[in-house]
Amino acid sequence: QVQLVESGGGLVQPGGSLRLSCAASGFTFRDYAMRWYRQASGKERELVATIWTGSLIGTYADSVKGRFTISRDNNKNTIYLQMNSLKAEDTAVYYCHVVITGRNYWGQGTQVTVSS
Fold it and tell me: How far is the C-alpha of 19 from the C-alpha of 21, rounded, in Å?
């Protein structure tokens, strides 16, 4: 079955960096676009970044453009989210996501807290 397992979250000071990872299994990873979403407390889940199949280029929400970089390693069935210049408003649970034959799959999420 499809599994997405995120890791790499934690507590970081404003201006700091973190790298999130999402290990995928149960499907042909290289054939699917992958996404990172986040959900802050009391807010709706929002799309952060997308990486397409066979592409080294991602697309980003305006709020993270220039600070976050999404990437994928098709040999390791893993996507990453490099987050730099973190701000308090980046605090959220970050989720890995894929759509397969019209069905949404989500990981369990990893908490990112940006605070001094």
Answer: 7
